[in-house]
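User: When convenient, might I ask for sequence and structure tokens for a protein?

AI:
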Amino acid sequence: MDNAARRPARARHCRGMTQHSESAQQPSAAARVTLRGPAELIDSLPYLLGYHPDDSVVLVGLHGPNGRFGGRLRVGIPAQEEGWPDLAEQLADCLRGSGVPRGDSPDGALVFLCREPADGESGQAVMERLRPLAQRLRIACGALEMPVYEALCVSGGRYWSYCCPDTRCCPAEGTPLGVPGTSAMAAAAAYAGLRVEGTLKEMTARLAPLGPPVAGPQERALDLAGTALVPRMLGDADRGTVRAETLALARRLLERYRSAPAADRREGRAGADARDDRLLSHEEAATVILGLQDRITRDWAAEWMEGSDAAPALRLWRALARRCVGAYAEHAAAPLTLAGWVAWSGGDEPGARVALGRALELDPGYVFARLLHGACNSGLDPEPLRQCLRRQRAARGLGSAAARG
């Protein structure tokens, strides 16, 4: 899973951008939803992405004479304006390439800039500050024959159009946003049973390293585990033993999470995550985190992706990612990738993209995360990889996870 061919510099640059972006599918392949006006376009964003974007540039490809939605890209807004020209070119290039595998490159684009005002700042000030970025995106997309039909700034409960100069419909003070969830897209998503999980910040926070009082003791436990395990992992004689020990401990933890109650709606996600965190000792977390840095061990752990294994595995991988504190932050790439894989395998594409994107922020060269993120963003079916892992599991004489329920 960790072999990747080298690509030309431009292709690698674009691929790196898509690693930190998201794309999504429409609520139903058979559904046809007509959106009218900027307000409905903005209200559709959470359903296109699976969460409410914040501090984000979002590009949506348009296809055909009716403007059918195609690929979606999301990235954070760079703080430094000098990075905006390169970002605009990379995003336009990636959006253009999003339809190449299907021979269906976008004919146009929509641009959304979403950022809340800072303290004492108005939404209009945010809009003006981001105007050069909107212009760069319009130029970059136009240069690739993808005219931007609408570019909107969303800030402080209002929106502005960078494309419409008519103050009668687009006043300088902005237009108030409508009631969320009232667009045709929202109705179609509700009918299809699709849910919006919250904001991007809230989803990312579930994967962030823990702070005091856990961080200090956990980092010391990681130091001790590293001293004991790394020499064994690097030596031929002991490497196989460490793999077996890591998987045995991870399996015990999986059973512990399986036995623990699932999330209670009354306690919320933060409460459920805190309860999951208490199921791990510092030493247990450190041992598994260090063991998962071995590629083969991680690939074996990826077999817990379906049936009765999936839900406890996802909770375990998230909890381990939160234990990668201090100097061990980059070690979270392994449990984050496993969390992303289990989420994608279970149909939670937004959660998968957030976890895999976070893994790539920590380690842009992490090949397994890169491959999974690209496949998820391309709308591929995870079943071929599940089949591969089932065969791998059977070859090791462990049977099928799906068969156990």
Summary: The two ends are 26 Å apart (CA to CA).
